[in-house]
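name: query_chain
kind: protein
chains: 1
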Amino acid sequence: MGFSKKQHLQSNIDALRIAFKLQKEKRQATASERLLMMQYSGFGGLKFVLNPIANEIDINNWRKTEHDLFPLTQELHQLLKENSEDEKQYRKYVDSMKSSVLTAFYTPPQVIDAISATLRESGLNIDKFLEPSAGIGSFIQSFSKNGKSVTAYEKDLLTGKILKQLYPESNIRVSGFEEIPEKEQNSYDVIASNIPFGDTSIFDLSYSRSRETAKVQASRSIHNYFFLKGADMLREGGLLAYITSQGILNSPNNEPIRRALMQDNNLVSVVRLPNNLFTEYAGTEVGSDLIILQKNTAKQSLTEREDLFCQSNRTEYDTPSNTLFQDSTRIVHTSSKLDTDPYGQPALIYTHKEAVEGIAKDLKQMLSEDFDKYLNLILYKGERNDEPIIQIPTTPKVTPPIVQPVNIQPEIQPLSINRESPQELKQLSIFDLFENAGEPVMVLARPKTTTQAKRQSTKKSSRAIGRQTDLFNAMQQTYTPPITNRITNGSTSVNGKKQEAIGDLFSSSNGNGQADKSAVLDTIPEPSPYSSELQPFYRNDCLVVNNGWVGHLQDVNTSSGTAVFNPLQLPTLQKARTEAYITVRDVYQELYNKEAKFQTEHKEERENLNRLYDAFIKRYGNLNSTDNIKLIKTDSSGKEIPYLERVVGGVVHKADIFSRPVSFSTVILATDNPEEALATSLNKYGSVDLDYMSEVSSMPKDALKEALHGRIYYNPLQKEHEISERWIAGNVVEKAQEVKAYLENNPEDSQAKASLTVLEEARPRRIEFEELDFNLGERWIPTGIYARFASHLFDTDVNIHYSESSDDFSVKCNQKNVHIWDKYAVKAESRTFDGIALLKHALVNTTPDITKKIKIGDQEVKVRDMEAIQMANTKIDEIRTAFTDWLHDQNDEFKNRLTDQYNDTFNCFVRPNYDGTHQDFPGLDRKALGINDLYSSQKDTVWMIKLNNGAICDHEVGAGKTLVMCTAAQEMKRLGLAHKPMTIGLKSNVHEIAEAYRTAYPHAKILFPGKEDFTPQKRLRIFGDIKNNDWDCVILTHDQFGMIPQSPEMQKEILQIELDSVERNLDALQAQGKEVTRGMLAGVIKRKENLEVRLKTLQHDIENRKDDVVDFKMMGIDHLFVDESHQFKNLMFNTRHTRVAGLGNVDGSLKAMNLLFAIRTIQERTNADMGATFLSGTTISNSLTELYLLFKYLRPRAMEKQGIHSFDAWAAIYARKTTDYEFSVANTIVAKERFRYFIKVPELAQFYSEITDYRTAKDIGIDRPNKNEVLYNIPPTPDQSAFIQNLMQFAKTGDATLLGRAPLSQSEEKAKMLIATDYARKMSLDMRMISRDYEDHPDSKASHCAAKLAEYYNRYTAQKGTQFVFSDLGTYKPNEWNVYSEIKRKLVEDHGIPAHEVRFIQEAKTDKQRKELIKGMNEGKIRVLFGSTSMLGTGVNAQKRAVTVHHLDTPWRPSDLAQRDGRAVRKGNEIAKHFADNKVDVIIYAVEKSLDSYKFNLLYNKQLFIDQLKNNSLGKRTIDEGSMDEKSGMNFSEYVAILSGNTDLLDKAKLEKQIAGLESEKQAFNRSKFSAKYKLQDFTELLESAQSRFNRMRLDWENLQGRIQKCSDGTIANPVLLDGLPPNADIKQIGTKLNQLADKARTGGQYEEIGSLYGFTLLVKTEVSEKETVDIRVNRFLVQGEGNIKYTYNNGLIAKDEKLAAMNFLNALEKLPSYIEQEQKKITEIQKDLPVLQEVVNGTWTKESRLSELKTELAGVERKIQLSITPENNELKETIEVTGEVQERPAARLKP
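structure:
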C-alpha cells in the first residue's frame, strides 16, 4: 500500500482532536478513542502542513498535486488555534510540527515486535524500561508486554500529548532526553528506541564540558548523544537497542563514538535494515541500522567483531559503509542496486520484496541467532550491589576538630586522596584538609553497580561538601562525603572502636607557627538556613560566618537570597584566622563591586581593606604563604584573593586596588595646554565644559574660546559648546536645519550664526537625481513609492508594506489581471509564480528556487528547474529595471523630493579633518625609538582615535601602525579617555608590539604575559591580574584574547538577535510554500536549534556565574586595539542570498564572535559606537562586502539610523547582484550569483572614511624603496606541456586517471574544476609536486628561481643583500621533498652558496628562534629566507638588507600579495636605498600557458578597485568588482583557454557563454510568447461571446421597454398569459397554476413552453439530482426573449405565495439592466487586457540585435583562431573547442 498523505493527515487531525478533548475533560480514552489515537503518525513526509494557509489565495503557493490537502491543513491549524491559550502556544505547536516534518518517521510495529519478542524468548525479564524518543509509543506498546515500569521521553509537544493519553499508566515526560535526572543513571534494564539523527547540538553540560572527547563530540550531534547517554542510563548487564540512521556506522567521523561505546559495552547484534522499511509508514526511503549493546564496564578488551564495528570503509562502488557489512549477510534484504540516497549521494539501496512482514520475519531470525551467540544472560541477571562504603585513609594524626560522625556499613572500599603540590592553587573540599589525621574516616559512597569503579561519576547531595573545581583546570569529583550530625564528645565510633575527631582545618600550625592546642566544644549545631545577608559573590562551599560559627554554604540561591549554612567545629585560633580572612575577602569584594557599579571612589572601604589586610598579614603572614593558600583553597569564593598580592623581584606588593580604583579612571589633569584641557573635558563630561577647562588650565573662559577658535563651536540647540570635529561632523544637513529654526526665534545670536555658517560650508555637494543609482527594495525609499510603481506596472492597485523586524516586504493585490497572471508570470511544472510573487522576490533581490520532477531509472527525483529559474530571473530583472525607468519618468517635483531624501540620508555626513599636530605626547622616549617625532599621519590618527573612541587605522605596511597603537593607548590612559586599554596582535609579532611600547614609554605599566604564562594553570592568575591592577596597557596575542571568557549576558544578547534573524528567515522560507526544499528547511532549523542550545548554555552560565572565573566585562577593559584586524573578518551574519559566491561562512568563526562580544561589551558601557581601533593594511582583502562586517563591529548604531539592520538591507543599497547562466561540461545550465557591481560608491567610501585614517606609504612620505614589479615568463618544460594537454582533457571529461590519480569520487566530481585549478598550480610550480616520478628540468621554476637568487646574491655580496622567497605551495617539511629544499639544494650545489645562509621560516618553532632568523636576515648572516604568506607575510621586520622578493606562486587575495611585498618594500631598508637605486625588485614567476600571469592580472585589477574606494578617488559611482571565486577554482572554458596559451580562445569562450545565455533567454521568451498567443485566442473568443450576449440582452431590454404597460397608479402591469388559463385570469389563479406546475411538471430535462409575458416566452424545466440513492426533482421557471437568453428570478424557483409566484417572471425581466451592466464591464476588462496580450504576441525580443552582434563578433574571433592554428595543431583544436562555462574576466597579456 502506498503512502497516502491525505489519510495520514486526517488520522493525525482526528487523533489530536481526541487528545485535546480528553485533556479538557480530564478523563482517560475509551477503547475506540485509543484506537483512533494510535493512528497518529507525526508529520514526517507531510511538509505541506508548513505552507501558508491564512487566506484562500494562499493555495497559489501550494503544489497543484497538494491542492486537495489545503482544506485539511486549514482544519489542522484551526484545531491547534482553538486549543491554544494564546498565540505563543500556537507558535509552539507549529514549531513542534516543523521539527516533526524532518524527523518523525515512525517504526513499523512488526519490526519492534520482532525485537521485543526476541528479548522475551531469550529469558529477559524487564523491570525498568526506557524509551528516550517515544514518538507515538510503538516501542512502549511492544515492550510493555515484557516490562513493569516504563519511562518514556518525547520532545515533540503534539506527539507527547497523544502519548500521555495513550499510556496513562506509564511515566511519560514531554521533554528532551537530555533532561533525564542523573540519579537515574545505571538503573534501566532495557532502553530501546528509533532515535533522531542530525548535527543538532544538545544542551547537556555534563557532555559539552566533559573531559571525555567522545562526550564532547556527542553533544554536537543528537544521534551520538543518544547512544552515549543511553549507555549511561543502563544498569550493568542492561541492553540498549536502537534503530538509527546508517550514518552512525558509516561515517569515519563517528569512530571515536563507536570506540567509546565498545569500551563499556558488549556488541550483541548489528543488523542493516532495508531502505523500504519506512516506505509504507512515512513515505520515505532511508537506510537504517539496528544496534543492540549490553553494558559491561568490566570488559578488558574488544573482540575482533567489535573492532570491525568501530571501523568504517568504502565499498567497491565507492559508497560509505561499515566494515561489519563487508558481505551482505548482516543486511536484511532480498535485492540491492547502486543508486542515490535521498540526499543525492551514491549509495547501495537494499529492498525486501515482502515489505514489512518479510523484514520483521528475517530480522527476528537474525536476532535470535545473535542473542544465542553474544547475549550474556548471567551478566543481565546479575545481582544488583548494595550501597558500598568508601574508606578514606588519612595521614598521621593531628589535634582534630570535631566533625560529624558517619553511618558505617559493613562493606567498605578504600579510596585514596592525592596530595597536591603547594605551587598549584586548587579548590579543596573540607575532606582535603584531613591529610594529617591519623585514623580513616568512613563515609558513605554512591550506589555501585560494577565490579570496577572506573568511569563512574557521582554527584553531590544537596548538603554534601564536595570537591570544588580546581582554580586552574577543572578537576573531576571522585567521591561525595555526606555529612551527618551525630556528635559524641569529639570522637566518632567506627565498628565499635573509638576514633579521634579530625583536626586542623588548614594545617598543623597556627599563624605563629605553634601547634594549636585550643579546646573545642563538644557539640555543633545542625545545618540550618543562613541568617545573614547573602552576598552576590557567595556560592556553594564558600566560607562564611553565621551566628558566631564558621562554616560552608550549600544550596546557594542568589535570586531568592537563601542558602544552607553548614557549621564547622574549629579550634579558637583557627577560627580567628578564618574569620579574619573572611572579613578581608568580603570587604575586597564589596569595594570592587561598588566601584565597578557606581564608577565612584569609595575611600572608607579602601581604608578599611588596607587596615584589615595589614592586620591579617601581621598575624598570619602574606596571603600567598603556604598555610594561607591552603585556607583559601577551601573557600570557593576565594579564587581572586591570592591576586591581591603581586611579587616583583621577590618582594610582595599590594595590588593596585589597595591604593586606587581599578574598574575606572580617576586621573585629574592640570595643564596649561587648551587642547589638552579640551580633551580632558570631553573625557570627563562627554562635552565641552568651559568651567572645568578653565579650572584645569587656569585660563579664563573667554581666553579659552579665543585660543580654541575654529576648534569649538556654540551649539544653540543644546546651549553648550562642541568641538569642531563633532560639530562639523555627522549629519550636518540635519544640524543646519535645526539651527535655522532656532535662529528664526533668536535672530541676534551671533555665536549660533557662526555655527550655522560653518555647517553650511561643510555640507557635501548635492548629488543630483541623474547621478543616482537606485535598487528596487532599498529600505530607505518609502513603501508608498514602491506601491505606486507596482500599481503602474501591473495596472491595478497594489499595496506594499515593509517590516523592519523581519526585514521583509509584504505585497497585496486584491484585483489581479493579465499583467500579473501572464505578462510578469512564470509557469513552472508545479506552480505559477505570478507577478506579485516575483515582485516580492525583486524587492529582496532573490530568485525563487523552482523545482521539477525527473525520472532517474525507476525513481522520481526532484531537481532545480534551471530553465524556469532563468526565466523568473529575467522577469525579476525586468521588474527591477522597470522601477528605475519609472523613477526617471516621474515629474521634477517627485524627483527632487526623492533626491532630497537620499542626500539627507546618505550624502549628509562629513568626515572631520583630524589635525593632531598640537599633541606633544608626554613621556614618549623619542630618543630610544630613534625618531625625531611621529609622522604627522600618525599624530592625526592618534588624535582621531582619542576623539572618536576608536578608528580604523588603514595604513600601508611599514607606515608605523605599531607606534600608533602604543601612543594612542598611552594617551587615552593619560587623559582618562580609557583607563585600561588592551592591545591584541598576532603571535608572530606581538612581542615586537610589547618591546616597542616599553621602548616608547619605559615607565609605563604594561602587562604582557608570555606563552609560558598562559598555561591553563596560570591563566586565571593573569585574568585576576588584569582585573585587580591599573595597567596602562594589556598586550595579548589573538589566541590568548580568545581564551578570555566573554560576558554571558552580552553573548546571550547578541546570539538572541541572531536567533531572531534565523527565525525570521525560517518564517520567510515557510511562506514560500512548496518550493522550499526539505534540505533548505532542515538547514535553517538545524541552525536555529544549535543557536538555542548555545543560548541555553549561556543562560546556565549566567545563573551559575558565581562559580566562573573573571570574564571580559569584569576586567574593566574599555578600549581594544586590534592589530591585523583582518584576521577577524569571518563574522557571523544572516542573509537570504545563500547561493551568492564569495560571501564567506554565515556561521562565522568563534574567534570573530569573541571579538564582537568584547566590542559590544565596551559599546554597551559607553552607549556609543566604536570602543575599538582596528589596525590593518588590508581592511578589505578581497571584496567590498567585507565593509559590512567592519561596520557591524564598529558602527552598529550609525547603520541602524540608515535603516540597515542586516546584511541584506546593506546590500540592497550598495550592491547589485549578477546571475550568470552558463552551460557546464555536461551541457546543463549552471547559475552563478555574486555581488559583482557596487553602486553609490562615493557614499559607501564616505561612510568608511568617516571612521578611517587611510594612508599609503606615498601619502605619508615614508622613506622606503619603490617596488619594481617584474613578470618573469618561463617556457613550459616538455613534461609540463604534455601535462597541460592532460589537464585540458581532464577538465573536459573528468577522467582523473589522466592526472595519474584515482578516478574522481562522487563528491570530488562536484569540485572538479577546483581540483583542475589546484593541479594546474602545482604543475606550474614543479612537476614533482604532482608525482616524484617526474625529474628535474633546467627550465623548471625552481631552476629559474635558483638562478635569479644566485644572480642577486652575487650582485649584492658586498652589502650582504638579502632576499625573500614566497610560496604557499611546496612549503618546507623536514625529511620530505619540497620546492623550498629543492631550490636550496640548487643554490648550494649549483651556485656555491653556503647552506647556513639559506633558511626557512618554518624552521623557527619558537618565538626565540623566529627572532634569531629575523636578526640573522638584518645582519646579513642569512641571505635567503623562504616562507608562506601566513608565516612570513606578517610580523617580520627583516627588511634592513632586502633587495628582492620572489613569488613562486600567486596568492588568491590582493591583500596577500601586498603583505608579501611589504616584507622588503618598507621603511628601514638601507641596502635598497643606498645600493639598489632605492628600489626592490619583485619578481613574479609565471610559466607560459599556466594560470600564473592571468591570476596575477586579476589580483592587480581587484586591488586597484579597492584602493580607489579607500581613497575615494573613483571617477564613477559604480564599480565592477569582477568575478573570482577561490572556493570553486576557475571555470571550465576560461581554464582551457588560458592553458592553451591562446587568449583568443578565452574571448571565444566568453562570447559563446554570452550567446548561449541569450539563446536560452530567447527560447524562454518565445515559449512565453506562444503561451500568450493561445490566451489571446481565448480572450478574443470570450470578447465575441460577451459582445453577442450584450447585444442580445440590449435587444431584449429595448423590446421590453417598447411593450411595457402601466396600471392607472403608475405601477408596471403584469399581464402573464398561461396555457390552460383564460387571458383575464387574476393573480391568484396565475399563482396557483404556477405552484401546480412546480409540483407536478415533468419535462425530462427539456424546456417546455407554458405561456408568455410582453412577447417573452415563459418556460419550465425539470432537473433531477440524486442524494443518498433518492431522486430529487426540482422545477425551475425561466423567461426567454428574442435574444434566446433565458432569465430567472430566485434561481427559477416559484414562491408558495400566489402573488409573489405570479410576479416571478416580471421580476426576472427587471434584472435585465444589471445583466447588461455586468456584460459591459466584462467587455471593458477584456478589451483592456487584449492589447497587453497583443503586445506580448507581437513583441520582439529586445536583445536580438545584441545577439546578432555577438554572433558576428564570434565569427571574427573564430576566423582569427583558424588562421593562427597550424596544421599540426588540429588535434589540439579538437580538444579545446568545447562548450563550457566561463567568467567574464580580462585576458592575461602581461609581459615581463
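note: The CA atoms of residues 1329 and 1633 lie 106 Å apart.
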